Amino acid sequence: MFRCSAVVRRLLPLQDPGVSPNANGLPGLPEARHLAGATVTFALVTCVVALIISAAAWALGNINGNPGYASKGRIGVLASLGAAILIGSANSLVRFFSGIIIG
Known about the structure:
With 103 residues, the chain is an all-alpha fold. It contains 4 helices and no strands. Helix 2 runs antiparallel to helix 3 (67-88). The radius of gyration is 23 Å and the shape is elongated. The relative contact order is 0.10.
């Protein structure tokens, strides 16, 4: 066990190639950022529409005494809320996980 950890400690410095992100090295990068922002906006609007439709299905299912529609509406509400949370926090999640240093 001790030998394995000593080998791993020797190999850890070798995994960093010394490459860092370059914000100016790729032509069209501002347009790609603009496109990504527009995609996030479109996805969030889609989540809001899905939330409204699912909430309506949930309410109508409860009013009409149809547990199948109510259940599917409830699942749709939870799925659209979860998707909106993940989409809204995608930038922060990528920034957090790209800053993790192994070793």
